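WARN retry 2 of 3 for item q-0093 after timeout on previous attempt; input resubmitted unchanged.
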Amino acid sequence: MTRFGSLFLCTALGLGGALVGCGSSTPSGGAGGAGGGGAGGGTSGSVLDVIPQDNTVSGWLVDTSSTNAAAGEVAATATTEEQATTGLGLDGASEPFYAGFTPVIFAMQNYVNTSLDEPGCATAAFPDCHALMLFVVQMSSADQAASLYTSVLSSQLYAAGTNPWETPTTPLVGTNSRIDDTGTQWWINFYKGIYYVQVKMTPSYATTANTADQSKAEALRFATAVASKM
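OK item q-0093 returned
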């Protein structure tokens, strides 16, 4: 199975839907993480403190569709590989995070942006609307986060897409970062402090009111905003 087939086995990735997860989970820590205070990173604090909410990153709203596992929550979370696999519907996409590692908590949220394309984006069929999936993995130490960033590249899921990984990103996100144009999405990986993060923004190619370069810049803007909370 390709990395796309595995990673989005339980997502609506076709022309009829936005990028959203399936399954359900209730975040440990509850709504206390809402608001994304700057004190959430480093070596303490909740992973929920770094998860953006509506317009935390201007223009990006939490996806409220019924197929989003994190709808109505700061994020959907898992504390074991089984929870990530079955509870969040990630199938084999969760495996690289647990291959020799024991993450403290795995969090995910999905977003939509109606301002990057023509009016009516919110109700138009994909790809006339931008969508984004965020994974934040809290590790037990900064060394573990850095090691995970390196380790995931050994998984087939992380083989280069349409273009090779750009390492590092320009601008650099977090402590170290890379970006790949999969042909349909901009995929950013980075780590900072105790966190390893993935941002996937759809689409990566030009749309009616948006160029591919602008899409790339927007993905980097979102990732940089997340990193700033760590």
